[in-house]
Amino acid sequence: MSITHVHTEAAPAAIGTYSQAVRAGDTVYLSGQIPLDPATMRLVPGDAREQARRVFLNLSAVAGAAGSSLADTVRLTVYLTDMDHFGAVNEVMAEYFRPPYPARAVVGVAALPRGALLEVDAVLVLGR
Q: What separation in angstroms does the CA of 1 have from each of 7, 27, 28?
């Protein structure tokens, strides 16, 4: 099985010791994305909805660089600093995903890098 590390300038550069994504065969593991604007590397202003839109745009860019799209998502993990944002994230997810939805977990956390309200990682399977 071939392993490829994925990088795109259309998503924020890694702010730590990780790749934006790793493709192993037909499976793509997308690292967690926070709502950073890739051009400025700054957190986007706004509420949880605006931050969630940026997160899903970032994930979409990385998926595209891996030769895929969010339509191939089989699993998401959403990390929230405030579970009151659960509904807003669901609303934004409905803009990017259609039934049947991928499997998902939502985890409450104390804090995220750069003061983000949420982070999302994903697993894609190509050619579903």
A: 20, 10, 13
